Amino acid sequence: MIFESLREFVEKLDQMGDLKKIDGAEWDLEMGALTELMWDAGGPALFFQNIKGYEGGSRVATNLFATRKRCLLGLDMPLDLKEEEAIERFERSLAECRPIPPRVVKSGPVAENVITGEKVNLLKLPVPRWHELDGGRYIGTGCCVIQQDPESGYVNIGTYRLQLHDEKTTGIYIGGTHQGGMIQKKYWEKGKSCPVAVSLGPDPILFLISSGGFGFPWGTSEYDIVGHMKNRPVDVMIDEYTGLPIPIQSEIVMVGEIPPPGVEKRDEGPFGEYTGYYASGTRPEPVIRVKAVYHRNNPILLGSPPLMPKGPSGYSFALSVKKREIKRRLAERGISDVLDDCTLSIPGIEVIKIKQKYAGHAAEIGSAALEVAGARMVVVVDEDVDVRDPWQVLWAMGTRCDPEVAVKVVNGCKTHTLDPGLSPDKRKKGDFTVSKVMIDACRPYTWAKDFPPVNRCSTELRQKTLTKWKDLFRDFEVKA
Questions:
Q1: Could you give the CA distance from residue 248 to residue 9 in angstroms, rounded to a whole number?
Q2: Is residue 189 part of a domain?
Q3: Which of 30, 232, 236, 251 is most enclosed, with most CB atoms within 10 A?
Q4: For the CA atoms of 171, 174, 175, 177, what is the dihedral angle to 10 degrees?
Q5: Burial degree of 35 (CB within 10 A; 0-12, 13-18, 19+)
Q6: Are 268 and 285 in contact (CB under 8 A)?
Q7: Are 75 and 205 in contact (CB under 8 A)?
Q8: Could you tell me if 62 and 101 lie in one domain?
């Protein structure tokens, strides 16, 4: 089933018994703590209603995509797919993408209520303060930020964090390398404010494509990709205040402008980020001046607070469909020797699987990966290691790596502004460089044949045994 709206998805989870409704929680930290505890427990999605101080119709949904099953449901995939199968299916869909542009209609559910001018008051929404050291209440990151390039007309959709400042103002933090940051800079260079619309309750597939960071080429609208994935166009209406196309099935959409930083900035942060740290501190950042708010009756605010990484789960979608980014980037450079790559959902560590062809091959691939990876560490492993299993990766590092010859440190590498390893002095100077390390955790090529064999059943024996005793393992996920 392809879900047209967030509330359809929530209703389905409720029918499946995978949603817990909570009455009377507080927006200040309590909702965030409950979200984290249920995330750690691997429990159901949470649906907050009758929030203290907001006993009206507004609701907040969290942990909607915190398990593989819920991710598969949101992507309209069979719920029994293993992660690798789902990733392959998703990647194949993108590789075969036939973009379908959005369809413009006059109106839709999001326009059931339209609030403009002095009546705009974002404080009427139950926006949580998620983490104890957060600098304020954050209305995003469960959002889609919509902007349009002033030169080409291309519409970009990204997910960025938004701090609630007051009734009509939010902060917006966009890294300079993101396409949204490039678009707003074009307006600023002309002395203009950047028009912006923000969906605060998008449908599951729109949120995935917006938040995934898949590296679509400039000029490829996320609306078109979502149209391909749904096999039908996304219905949008043109907002009269910004001229931007907004998804009519959204729960809430706020529209306005981002003035040039020289016109207005406000202190933003800190915020508990996907790295598992409050990494960016407090500093002046651009703002969104909100001119109007559209919302459905009894709207649902999508809460997707970054939480400290755990196990196989990711940040927004536990089924991480962005697994082979380094493989793709290396292939663009003519390096096609990577069998697989994965971030392990651990920020800062990229694992690459290869089949060694010659002495120095692993170090060569690892060094090349350092240049294109955003990770602080790159680990290269043999073909018998599952790059998605942290224990197997650590096992290879602990038993096959000779630190004297298999570890390479490179200084002066570019990093992102949320890197917790950046010193306060470097941040002050605007020096966003760090050292990175490449770890060769492969068997030494020159004597690999003499390396002790692994004491594990062969694939053939495992498969034969699983087939014969399939009833014994019916309720378990075991790899052959």
A1: 16
A2: yes
A3: 251
A4: -150
A5: buried
A6: yes
A7: yes
A8: yes
